[in-house]
Request: fold
Amino acid sequence: MNEKIETPYFLIDKEKLEKNFEDMYVAFKNKWKNLIIGYSVKTNSLPWIINYFKEKGAYAEVVSKDEFELAKALGFSLNNIIYNGPIKSEKTFIEALEGNSILNIDSFTEIEWLKKNKPKNQRMWEIGIRINFDLESMCPGETVMGQMGGRFGFNYENGEFFNAIKELEKLEYIKISGLHLHNSTKTRSLNVYKDISEMAIKIKEEFKNLNFKYIDVGGGFFGGLKDKPQFLEYAKVITEILEKKYSKDTTLIIEPGASLVASPISFISKVISIKNVKENRILTINGSCNNINPLMRDKKFNIKFKNDLTARNIIKNQIIAGYTCMENDILLCLKNEKELFLNDEIEFLNMGSYTMTLSPLFIEYFPKVIVKDKDKYSIARERWAVKEFLQKNYL
Ligand SMILES: Cc1ncc(COP(=O)(O)O)c(C=O)c1O
Reply:
């Protein structure tokens, strides 16, 4: 692929992706011998990316029946799938247990499924259990769930975690083998992992008859960014606490998403029209918040101009707007910056987590995805057009 790439497109820098994975693997593996990295499929479910991590030896961490089927379709064996989340189907739940997937139960509905079904051939089913605990009070202001508390897993403080364990212990064909402690935080701080790891210790001390084969601390790290905590720092905080009570035979599971894929991916789009309204110059691009900020969060983009702007004039207000007919589809406002012309390309950096596959199919369909491997470029996904949009429709 040597011709100039038509915008808009996402660009995956394979070298950076490789570096993130290698750095994470080496950092954690040096600290804890039994390690499983489960790539968080939802973070960016582009088949090329999922397959890339499969080839690196990662497991697929999935959170729905569709993601479970996707992981299978992409060639993960059942015992290389970590099955989490509140929307497992009963059928895939049983399939995962029979196939020795790592499965972390999330609710009493799933305990009902365990009561209703039994393993084939007198074997045991091994399960993990997701704990819901008040991380916010341990790290005030840091969690996404805030004072309300998280929605996932069994709550520790009100006794539901205890009750779930008691229910499970009544089922002679169930062995509780794992503890899942993922939490979503705004800060991704080292402090968060200190408290998560300490919770794992507390549970071990309190539930002496449980013998966890694995501790899954979840995802939520930073990665590939110089001014943020590094993988080795996360690995150190977690393992130095876990090793106080857990033997090194215990498997440590991490479920990275954004830390692997955010920094290596960018989105490239060009100016398609220029007009003046009141005191503003509006530059519409052939990209949109749909592509890189679908939840319309207040976001500061890190951008790079592909053309040389040094000889250009300074313009007071240039508003970069998306192609949709939503008035609020505004990506950024350039104040006292060099003048942009028609066809100038803007690269939005670090755009790989969540947004690429969280985009709505609204007005335009998915843009193409290109992989850059040193100076070689290849296509990971063609642009979706009407043909893809029409599939499975009846008139
Ligand atoms: C259970 C679970 N594991 C892993 C992740 C990945 O998190 P991140 O992309 O922040 O690393 C998430 C994201 O919310 C999650 O819910």
Q: What stands out?
A: The longest helix spans residues 14-31. The mean pLDDT is 96.
